[in-house]
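Sample entry (528 residues):
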Amino acid sequence: MSDHYRLSNEHLWQSLSLFNIFRLLIVIGLMAGAFLLTSSSWFENGNFWAAIWILGSYTLCGIVFAFSIAQRWPRFDIQLSMHVSVDVMFIVALMHLGGGIKSGFGILLLPYLAAAGLIARGRMTMFHAAVASLALLAELVWTVLNGDVNDTIPISTVFLCIASFAVAWLAYRLSLYAEENRELAEQRGVDIANLGQLNARILQDVSDGVLVVDAKDLIQQFNEQAVRFTGVRPDLASPLAADLPELASPLARWREFPEMGSSELIQTADGRNTLRARFVSLSSDSNGNVLIYLEDMARLRRESQQLKLAALGRLTANLAHEIRNPLGAISHAAELMREEAADDPLLQKLTRIINDNSQRLERMVKDVLELNRRDRVERIDIRLAEWLHNFAEEFVLQEKIPMKLAISCAPEVIVRFDAGHLHQVLWNLARNGWRYCTQRDGSLQITVQAYRDGWMLSVINDGPPVPNDAQSQLFEPFFTTESKGTGLGLYIAREICAANAALLEYQSPPHGGACFRILFGYTDGEKI
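Predicted structure, serialized as tokens:
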């Protein structure tokens, strides 16, 4: 049985319960009228006490109906027909005791029929009107057969029968209209609920952070992206100035001077993120509710870099052979010139310059082509302690380092990464670390430790830290502080880490030096 059917059925029983309460209230009113407003002829004929007995029986039936409604037995259609039949019987009996159609009690049939028709929603409505008409005609025939012809008005009885069918038909039409409106309202309610869920889903899935602030600067709504950007989870209906003071001042300025623009750069409280806040009024009143969009400037820069590098990668891939062939020819010609000019120092110097710059161009082409490798990822489980031991031996041997690398890693550490990618990234970090450290025992260290629910690999050296003004550009393509560098090494390393669901970042240790760390299982600071 569906929830919709159960809910609809429950509404029918509630309506029947209200109908029974209406019945008991009518009984109370009739009893009060019998004692206060009835003429003395009822006392003389004994009709008064007969009416009281009928009303008492009617009350008892109402109490029994209340218990049967509570028990939901018998079923609804049968109960409603029983109720209407009992109502018709008692009302017609009261009408007969009161002197027939002239008593006016017959009019009470109409609201009962109307209520029954609305409750039944069209079902059995005409049957109930037929029962009432038959009862009225039976009372008329009984009166005529007992010789009380003077107290009968056949035409009034006929009109009352016609009115019963008219009221029943009208109730039937109204019930259909009400049912259509109810179904339409339920459908609208479902549509509104679905729309609300859709809006909530869209709000949570948009790449920008979103906050809704009312006219009193109280936070009414926000999404998870806003929490990630700001690092603060505000309370609903809390003041914006209390939870996000860096947004309160720009919002106040925008409210006061909206012509100055709707966007402004802000710095988060922890100083890690730069956000662009855009303010959009939700109404024509500039002092009303405001929608605040938060855009991560670092993400925008990364997207811009992606577009730039994608275009550059396609261009380089197409021209790689055309570039490498002339470079090879130049390098070969320079080698021949150097052999021919063995006794000429000037030509030796010029050929060395040609070779150095040719090799630099070759490295740049190779680095750019490495960007395509991030799409070919084969992640496997790597036992990091054993892998780092083999890596350190190979690195020391090839880089001609006269000492061992300091490695700290628990034997149970397992990370999921492409082995070739991890070798490339770590080799780049270790080579840079050795270049800038003091090159003594312990100058270059590789440590692995737990971080949240994953692992963090750190490459630490005791050299000079990266200047603060260069840290924001450290992972940007073509940024380098060396004249012979391509500026793509760290950028490629970070892209490779992102392709392996990891995050590469720089951190300045408190005791000095420099530290690059890989957070396994994280992308842009979020756990995968």
